[in-house]
């Protein structure tokens, strides 16, 4: 990390003694004053319920500063305590100290509180949350959103001829965002309206699946193309396995019905215990970029990065670029519309707080790492 130095110079005043005048000592060369460095705040959960993530997030931001920063700015780490009130107080404190960009905070609740404080000061915010509802002018949520994931899977499947999609998910914030994304993707690609089933979060997945099997999955004797060809699941872990078990137990043919899920499936080795999930798709980061980031982080800090560390790296790298390209004393120039290489591959900030990421698509494989079935591609203007 680049460190600045402040050099102080002292001049000796002329002195008079009883024996006569002594001329002043020769002064050394006068150095120009160091320019004031611009400040970027890091709003991190260094205490509280998410304190275990604070240091990995700080590490990732420091790595981004080392790799992509310059001598003209510095980070101001501030503890949010993992609460909305703590995040708002940290944001106000940092802005009062001259922070030009806010990197973080972690959660959607913290982001909402910080955005209010930042808006009045005209300070951009790069939070780590994946809640797309927090997107707003000058607020870019950098977590992997449900919309990004759903659109990538739909685009890859449509490229292989899939036309009819369905979604089964608990009725909550995640399920509703997935449903909106799937409907939007189908509309933009000219596909039939998807079948969407949102069910109570407390419902047993296997029971829900049995009740929905007739609608969502074609049976072996169904006419080709008459039913849902790919079903996206808003479940993970044991609930995903139970849901698929309910589908097959009710007679749904898997395949030909294809299954897909979210990026968190990459971290659940138990999913392949359900045979019908073999070959199921899920989106994820560019494998080459992610592997390189993990290697650099481990070399610098002696441990593997936390899952969310890559998002902190991206936010810090974007802030570094904005400050590097800003005119002296002017507003930070956020790279809106430009392609930026982050920890997990290419990404783009768009107006209004929307973020696009280059995502690959993977298939679950029993007894082996998930295999890429579609390369990482950065979406175009419509999300494809």
Automatic annotation (TrEMBL):
The question of whether Transit peptide is a record keyword is answered with no
Where does the sequence pass through the membrane?
none
Q: Which domain of life does the UniProt lineage start with?
A: Bacteria
SUPFAM superfamilies for this protein: Periplasmic binding protein-like I
Biological processes per GO annotation: amino acid transport
Give the Gene3D superfamilies listed for this entry: 3.40.50.2300
Task: Respond yes or no to whether keyword Signal is given for this record.
Answer: yes
Q: Which UniProt keywords apply?
A: Amino-acid transport, Signal, Transport
Looking at the record, the residues that make up the Leucine-binding protein domain are: 39-327
Q: Which family does it belong to?
A: Belongs to the leucine-binding protein family.
PANTHER family recorded for this chain? LEUCINE-SPECIFIC-BINDING PROTEIN, PERIPLASMIC BINDING PROTEIN OF ABC TRANSPORTER FOR NATURAL AMINO ACIDS
**What name goes with this protein?**
Penicillin-binding protein activator
| Phylogenetic lineage | Bacteria, Pseudomonadati, Pseudomonadota, Alphaproteobacteria, Acetobacterales
């Amino acid at each position: 990390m680049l460190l600045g130095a402040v050099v102080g110079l002292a001049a000796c005043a002329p002195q008079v003694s009883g024996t006569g005048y002594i001329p002043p000592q020769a002064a050394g060369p006068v150095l120009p004053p160091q320019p004031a460095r611009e400040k970027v705040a890091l709003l991190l959960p260094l205490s509280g319920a998410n304190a275990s993530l604070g240091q990995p997030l700080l590490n990732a931001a420091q790595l981004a500063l080392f790799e992509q920063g310059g001598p003209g700015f510095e980070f101001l780490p501030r503890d949010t305590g993992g609460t909305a009130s703590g995040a708002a107080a940290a944001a106000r404190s940092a802005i009062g100290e001259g922070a030009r960009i806010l990197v973080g905070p972690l959660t959607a609740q913290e982001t909402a509180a910080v955005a209010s404080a930042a808006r009045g000061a005209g300070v951009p915010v790069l939070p780590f949350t994946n809640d797309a509802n927090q997107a707003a002018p000058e607020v870019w949520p950098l977590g992997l959103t449900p919309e990004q994931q759903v659109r990538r899977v739909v685009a890859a499947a449509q490229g292989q001829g899939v036309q009819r999609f369905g979604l089964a998910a608990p009725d909550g914030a995640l399920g509703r965002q997935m449903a909106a994304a799937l409907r939007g993707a189908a509309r933009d690609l000219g596909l039939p309206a998807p079948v969407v089933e949102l069910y109570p979060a407390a419902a047993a997945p296997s029971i829900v699946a049995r009740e929905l099997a007739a609608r969502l999955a074609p049976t072996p004797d169904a006419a080709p193309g008459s039913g849902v060809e790919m079903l996206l699941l808003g479940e993970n872990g044991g609930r995903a396995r139970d849901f698929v078990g309910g589908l097959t137990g009710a007679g749904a043919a898997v395949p030909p019905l294809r299954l897909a899920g979210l990026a968190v499936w990459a971290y659940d080795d138990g999913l392949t215990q359900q045979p019908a999930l073999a070959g199921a798709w899920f989106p994820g980061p560019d494998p080459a970029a992610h592997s390189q980031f993990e290697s650099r982080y481990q070399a610098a800090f002696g441990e593997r990065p936390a899952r969310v560390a890559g998002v902190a790296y991206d936010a810090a790298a974007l802030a570094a670029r904005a400050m590097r390209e800003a005119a002296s004393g002017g507003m930070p120039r956020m790279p809106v519309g430009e392609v930026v290489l982050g920890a997990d591959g290419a990404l783009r900030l768009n107006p209004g707080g929307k973020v696009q990421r280059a995502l690959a698509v993977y298939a679950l494989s029993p007894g082996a790492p998930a295999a890429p079935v579609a390369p990482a591609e950065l979406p175009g203007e419509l999300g494809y």
